[in-house]
Amino acid sequence: RRAGVKPDNEAVRRAIKERPPLIMFGSFNERMYLAENAVRAMYIPASFPGAIIRRHTGTPFMGYSGATYIVQEVCNALFDALFNILPLGTEMDKVEATPAKLAGAGVSPWDDDAVELLDDYIETEPFLVRISAAKRLRERVEHQSRQAGEWRVTAARVASCLSTLVAGPVA
Question: Fewest C-beta in 10 Å: which of 22, 93, 157, 168?
Fold first, then answer.
């Protein structure tokens, strides 16, 4: 935001959809844009009216009190984000065994362009979830490759798996 300049709300919406944040600082508008795009980002009020309602000295983010407030909010948001990322116990029980550990199911070799495509996608994920997102996507791609009788993972197979991700990030 810049003083005296109306924000480009469509650009903000597009950015949220294209690169979902893990933590979003903003006004109530940004909170609505997260909801519109079904993004599970942690929201921290950084504009009015949310910041003033908290009635905290230094809100939004001025001086030592503001710095203390923002550090606490970011830490709490990261813990909440981690809770949203980790599967619940009942979900963990429903998951199949890791394919690489199944009898006779070795890790498929990957073509260089397939690895590059996977890496490019993982770069779009929030930093905190990249490891689990990469693991889940690798397992999904290798499983589909084996089911199709392919002995290598190709860029076409990765692209096919990515095209089925309609519900947002892997993790």
Answer: 93
Query: Which pLDDT score is estimated for 45?
Result: 82
- All residues at 6 or more sequence positions from 139 whose CB lies less than 8 Å from its CB, including other chains: 98, 99, 100
Cα gap 47→60, rounded to integer Å: 7
Chain centre distance of CA 17: 11
Q: 26 — phi, psi (to 5°)?
A: 170, -170
Q: CA distances (Å), 6 to each of 13, 45, 80, 127, in order?
A: 15, 19, 32, 30
What is the model's pTM?
A: 0.50
Give the total residue count for the chain. 171
Give every residue of the chain whose pLDDT is below 50, as ranges: 100-103, 166-171
What pLDDT does 42 receive?
Answer: 87
Count other C-beta atoms under 10 Å from residue 64's C-beta. Answer: 9
Q: Which of 96, 95, 109 is nearest to 146 (CA)?
A: 109
Q: Could you tell me if 133 and 125 are in contact, meaning their C-beta atoms sit under 8 angstroms apart?
A: yes
